[in-house]
Design brief:
The structure is a single chain. By secondary structure, this protein is of the alpha/beta class. It folds into 6 domains: 43 residues, no CATH class; 85 residues, no CATH class; 50 residues; 171 residues, Rossmann fold, CATH 3.40.50.300; 84 residues, Helicase, Ruva Protein, domain 3 (Orthogonal Bundle), CATH 1.10.8.60; 194 residues, Ribosomal Protein S5, domain 2 (2-Layer Sandwich). The chain has a 7-stranded mixed beta sheet. Helix 6 runs antiparallel to helix 7, helix 16 crosses helix 18 and helix 22 packs parallel to helix 25. The longest helix is centred in the N-terminal third of the chain and has 39 residues. The radius of gyration is 36 Å and the shape is flat. The protein starts with a strand and ends with a helix.
Length: 687
């Protein structure tokens, strides 16, 4: 094999050692000896490359294996860089790794030299490295187990790393509060008086570790620059203006914030951004499914497995006494025979009481007054009223289509393309394509499913690249089906086509924990008697339907209906929503309108959605969740929303683009609403 001489070292005994760099593979033919030399004809053996994608994939995998092997072994670290530089030339890569592999026998190295197929060399080296890595990892695991068993044996013999003297030294040099010092000294004296192998010794030792590890007087340096906080929140989140403004103003002595919204509206990440904007550490506690009060207040030190509560653990994890602690899923806290965690949270979230919160494990007061607490929930009605009273509620209603598109441009698309290994490729997705994904595949208040669908697009693009596609790639509306398949959500065009033609059909608006929803109401009549309601309707909605029918019957002359219009007739009201349970006080207006439309034979416009509850006197009562419901109407293509007069203030919370594009009709009495709809429909039919 022809080679370059890189280094020649003269040996003391008169010989020399040379470092050579091979250049080519050759095969000798017809060798012959001439005095002290050997001559031969040679044949140059070129590397055989198939050019398939599998070779490149094998090279990438081999580089990854070799880098791990270098980390485990004593090989020089620069070899990792050399392997990465040769990654695009598989032939040179196999020669480098084959020569550097210390465990390869002479026969293996000779076989690698004689092999001209690059793919075969890649496969053999991959198998060799895989075997060596398995042996190294097994050896490391055995060593770790031996060290762990030795440490446990030392602790049982009373020869742990930290002796009672070192604990006393740590206690004397610490800056603990007086109550904590007093309790720690008592526990240390108790520890020194008991045998080293006593079971109680480990309990005392663990307790002292927790007390000494608490950040009693360690604080983060806070940022008070409002402009800096605003820039961080604007960079991390799109929309949510009111919530971000409140986050900039949050202080330790202010009310605890409760972020309420549908899944996927970035409640958790918003808390992390608030902490970063304020210059504080961040810790998160998930309260979903917590039933034991000791999870909040800690366990009493009456058994070996006792632990502090989650609040103390969060403080120790944060390392400061003024972090931002986020209480996730506070609406899913339960209660059983072990206590009520929500009652324990009353003291935690009260700014007038939490300066002396007592954890049952530490048994000394802990100052929580410098902690900023943020809580998240999907709904308010499952949070106990006393606990809800401790917090300031901020509603996160979800994102409009424009905001989702902007978020996709700034955050979701770069993240999904990077995860798919496509960060540097030219990929363009039009706004219309993104809007089509939002409407046909992910109709939701948040972003969770939207992010999943964009990740699916990224994976499909990555597959095209692996199969030989070079790009640039452009995805329009017509290409979405290619990447995501048929639309997953019904556009409800079959229902919308009947508006303006069929009487008794109305679009109502409802609130759900997953955001607002358009609720289509159908009414028809037949021979029979009374009112029939179908679908899974709750008691409140059934009562709304009865009130609507009673109101229409009491005011039949308003719509020129005979007083006995129900004689011999049965009215059937149906809410076709796939068997989903439905309840809540906001369907009265829609139910009344559906009955009037049915009885007068006048259809209702298809671009109108409505909300509001009705009394027997015809008064329209205000409802909640206005922003979520309006955004749902907009997603469904509605242009006009009818809502109670007393909900006018809620319109100010809507995005400006939504207020500009949609028409809002405010009503106080249902007479005005139904009469105007009938008159308007009659005029349109006449025209």
């Amino acid at each position: 094999m022809p080679a370059l001489s890189r280094q020649v070292l003269r040996l003391p005994e008169g010989g020399a050692r040379a470092l050579l760099q091979p250049l080519l593979r050759i095969r000798a033919k017809h060798p012959r000896s001439l005095e002290s030399l050997v001559q031969a004809e040679v044949e140059v053996l070129d590397d055989v490359l198939t050019g398939e994608t599998e070779e490149q994939a094998l090279a990438h995998h081999l580089v990854s294996q070799f880098q791990r092997f270098v980390d485990f072994s004593d090989l020089p670290k620069p070899l990792k860089l050399g392997a990465r530089e040769q990654q695009e030339t598989p032939g040179l890569l196999t020669d480098l790794i084959g020569s550097a592999l210390p465990t390869a026998t002479h026969e293996v190295q000779l076989r690698l030299l004689e092999e001209t197929s690059v793919r075969a060399r890649l496969q053999e080296l991959t198998g060799l490295l895989g075997h060596e890595l398995a042996l190294l990892e097994m050896g490391q695991k055995i060593q770790s187990q031996v060290q762990q068993e030795m440490g446990q044996h030392q602790r049982e013999l009373g020869t742990s790393d930290e002796t009672d003297e070192s604990l006393r030294a740590r206690l004397e040099h610490s800056s603990l509060p007086e109550a904590a010092v007093r309790e720690a000294k008592l526990e240390l004296e108790r520890l020194e008086s008991m045998p080293a192998r006593a079971a109680e010794a480990s309990v005392s030792h663990t307790y002292l570790d927790w007390v000494l590890g608490m950040p009693w007087n360690k604080r983060s340096k806070e940022h008070t620059d409002i402009d800096r906080a605003r820039n961080i929140l604007e960079k991390d989140h799109e929309g949510l203006g009111k919530v971000k403004l409140r986050g900039q103003q949050q202080g330790a002595r202010g009310p605890m914030l409760l972020l309420v919204g549908s899944p996927g509206v970035d409640k958790t990440s918003l808390g992390r951004s608030v902490a970063r904007a304020l210059g504080r550490r961040f810790a998160r506690m998930s309260l979903g499914g917590v039933h034991d009060e000791a999870e909040i207040r800690g366990h009493r030190r009456t058994y070996v497995g006792a632990m502090p509560g989650r609040l103390v653990q969060a403080l120790c994890k944060a390392g400061t006494n003024n972090p931002v602690i986020q209480l996730d899923e506070i609406d899913k806290v339960g209660a059983d025979h072990r206590g009520d965690p929500s009652s324990a949270l009353l003291e935690v979230l009260d700014a007038e009481q939490n300066h002396a919160f007592v954890d049952h494990y530490l048994d000394v007061p802990v100052d929580l007054s410098q902690v900023i607490f943020l809580a998240t929930a999907n709904r308010l009605d499952t949070i106990p009223a006393p606990l809800r009273d401790r917090m300031e509620v901020l509603q996160l209603s979800g994102y409009s289509e424009e905001e989702k598109i902007q978020i996709a441009r700034k955050h979701l698309l770069p993240k999904s393309l990077k995860a798919s290994g496509l960060g540097r490729r030219r990929i363009e997705i039009t706004d219309d394509a993104l809007r089509h994904i939002v409407r046909g595949y992910t109709r939701e208040a948040g972003l969770r499913n939207f992010a999943r669908e964009l990740a699916n697009v990224g994976r499909k693009l990555a597959r095209r690249v692996v199969e030989g596609g070079r790009g640039p790639f452009r995805i329009g509306v017509d290409d979405v089906r290619t990447y995501l398949g048929p639309e997953k959500l019904s556009t409800e065009e079959d229902v919308r086509d009947d508006f303006g033609v069929t009487s008794g059909l109305v679009a109502g608006l409802a609130w759900t924990p997953a955001g607002g929803e358009v609720m289509y109401i159908e009414a028809t009549r037949m021979a029979g008697d009374g009112l029939r309601l179908t679908e899974q309707l709750g008691d409140v909605m059934k009562e709304s339907a009865q009130i609507a029918l009673s109101y229409v019957g009491a005011h039949a002359d308003t719509w020129d209906l005979p007083a006995d219009f129900l004689a011999g007739q049965e009215i059937h009201v149906h809410l076709p929503a796939g068997g989903v349970p439905k309840d809540g006080p906001s369907a009265g207006v829609a139910l009344t309108t559906a009955l009037v439309s049915l009885l007068t034979g006048v259809p209702v416009r298809g671009d109108v959605a409505m909300m509001g509850e009705v009394t027997l006197r015809g008064r329209v009562l205000p409802v909640g969740g206005v922003e979520e419901k309006v955004l749902a109407a907009r997603r469904a293509g509605m242009t006009t929303v009818i809502l109670p007069q007393r909900n006018e203030r809620d319109l100010l919370e809507l995005p400006a683009s939504v207020r500009d594009e949609m028409t809002f009709v405010l009503v106080e009495v249902v007479d005005v609403l139904t009469s105007s709809l009938v008159a308007d429909s009659t005029q349109r039919q006449a025209a």
